[in-house]
Design a protein that fits this description.
Elements: E1 2-6, E2 11-18, E3 21-29, H1 34-48, E4 58-62, H2 68-85, E5 89-92, H3 94-100, E6 109-116, E7 119-128, E8 131-141, H4 143-148, E9 154-157, H5 161-172, E10 176-177, H6 188-200
Parallel strand pairs: 1-4, 4-5, 6-9, 9-10
Antiparallel strand pairs: 1-2, 2-3, 6-7, 7-8
Helix pairs in contact: 1-2, 3-6
Length: 226
């Protein structure tokens, strides 16, 4: 049994996998309550399926980018489970997880997260010749700069999309494909699929050194001195 944990944003998700099949999954809007809601919901999922934490053979966790609080809670929980149960852990990009659910469209997929300060976090993915590929590295940019580089029909996805749909369509017109609200929901099941691929190849992360990927540091104001 493997457990997938995603607390990257205000939407959190859990999935439990057994024999490479998702046997249960839960996605909910948690706001900033990751620390109080994550473990209780995991306990409920395990109980509903007559499973225990001791049965876990691996932990898969979304490593960001995303919110500082959400990622800290998710990764620290995942690392704690990996240490206490002595099982492997793998971290998966949240942007990649966001994009992966559209892989079978064979179109370029551009997940977008709000990076604040008028900027976005993004990357570009596509399934080519039956191989899942990352076309551009994760980076911070602006909507205008991103759209200036898009030359073909592209799927834009992510929790932040509703706030910027009009801007994207303004720049790209028919080249921008925007999924419906229900299709935009990020699910831990897709995180689990990506994590299982890494686990099969033995590409584990070191729980002692696995860290969230923020792409840049938090906006911290320096204390004023008299």
């Amino acid at each position: 049994m493997q457990i997938a944990i995603d607390t990257s944003t205000d939407t959190a998700s859990l999935a439990i996998i057994q024999d490479e099949e998702i046997i249960t999954e839960l996605t909910w809007r948690c706001g900033q309550n990751h620390s109080t809601q994550l473990l209780p919901r995991l306990t409920v999922l395990l109980s509903q399926n007559n499973l225990s934490l001791e049965s876990a053979e691996g932990i898969i966790v979304a490593r960001g980018p995303g919110s500082f609080n959400g990622l800290r809670v998710g990764i620290s929980t995942a690392k704690g489970l990996a240490f206490s149960l002595n099982i492997p852990i793998v971290g998966i990009s949240t942007l990649e997880t966001e994009a992966y659910q559209y892989a079978e469209t064979r179109l370029p997929i551009c997940p977008i997260f709000n990076a604040r300060r008028g900027e976005i976090a993004t990357a570009l993915y596509q399934k080519k010749y039956n191989k899942w590929c990352q076309l551009t590295n994760e980076h911070i940019t602006t909507i205008e700069a991103l759209c200036s580089q898009i030359t073909t029909k592209t799927i834009f996805c992510g929790e932040y999309i509703p706030a910027i749909t009009s801007q994207i369509r303004g720049y790209l017109k028919q080249k921008a494909i925007i999924p419906t609200p229900s299709a935009r929901l990020r699910r831990a099941g897709f995180l689990a699929e990506l994590g299982l691929v890494k686990m099969k190849t033995g590409s584990y992360d070191n729980p002692a050194t696995l860290q969230p990927s923020y792409l840049r540091g938090p906006a911290i104001t320096k204390a004023k001195h008299r």
